[in-house]
Amino acid sequence: MNKLRQLLDEIDNHGYKAYKNLVGDFQFPDFLLRIDHVQGDPFADPSRCRLFIKATKTNIPSYFFNTRGRTIALEDFLGRSFSDAIKQEVQGERGDGMSGEMTVTVYGQEVLERNTVLVQDGDIELRIRIGLPAVKRTVNAEQAKTMLFEELPAVVIKGLDVLQNNIVKVQQHIDSVEDQQSLRQQLNERNLVAFIADGSHLPRYSGIDDRPLPEAILFKAPASLAVKLVQPHAGIIRGLGIPEGITLIVGGGFHGKSTLLHAIERGVYDHIPNDGREKVVTISSAVKIRAEDRRAITEVDISPFISTLPQGKNTRHFSTQDASGSTSQAANIMEALSIGTELLLIDEDTSATNFMIQDERMQALVSKDKEPITPLVHRIRDLYQDNAVSVTLVMGGSGDYFGLADTVIMMDNYIAKDVTLEAKALAHDVVPKGIKFRELKSKNVRVPSLSCLSPKYDKNRDKIQAIGTRILRYGQIEIDVSKLEQLVDNAQLTAIGYLMCHYYEQNMQDDLNHLDLVVGLKDALIDVEQLGLDCLTPFIVGSLAMPRIHELVATVNRMRNLALRKRGQIGLSL
Question: Does 312 score more than 80 pLDDT?
Answer without folding.
Answer: no
